[in-house]
Amino acid sequence: MQEQQQKVLLIERKRKLESCFRDDLLRKGYPVLGVESGGEGLTRLNDFPPDVVIINAATLRTNGLRICSWYRNRLPDTPLILIVPEDEPIDDADHIDVILHLPFTVQKIVNRLRSFEITRNQDLLIKGPLQLNRKTRMVTYKEKTSYLTPRLARLLHILMQNPGVEFPRRELFKQAWKTDYTEDTRSLDVHISWLRKALEDDPQSPQLIKTVRGVGYKLDLSAR
Question: Domains, the chain, ranges and CATH?
Fold first, then answer.
């Protein structure tokens, strides 16, 4: 699976006298969704889950702190970059990953994006067409992206570390729930069902997470 560039949500308004970066980032190969307000960006998170959010406050006539708070609450693990004018003082910015004061070129943003990518790659588990970010719990399979609960992410992580292995239900339950009590594994079946809904084209006829009759479950990456 070829590694893709980070998806960037860029909040900025195009103004003649201000530095705008959408076109430059697109030329650098980054998938960019440009919106003109923080509220507009929030409405697009489901169809464009970003890897990085950039708030170009210099073009918004605001210091951007309130917008950053909105996105930190919605995307607690997604890096936030705030761009402000050269003389803009910024206080109470613990929830912002990077603050950049103008003027600078797009290369400065690219350098920051690359540093985030190095960190992100350490959290990525990639098996064939399946990709799981263990930090954000975002999973991608066949262009479908979903956010998993901690338990579902742990369950998928175990299966991804052992593709093709036929897991007995009790053993899979023991590892995912971190317990020695395995007499009642009905919760495992429910979670497998939820995981299939997040990943499979047809959860009723699963091709990725298969039931092994009389044994348990396995991850089948031969499905295409």
Answer: 8-123 (3.40.50.2300), 128-219 (1.10.10.10)
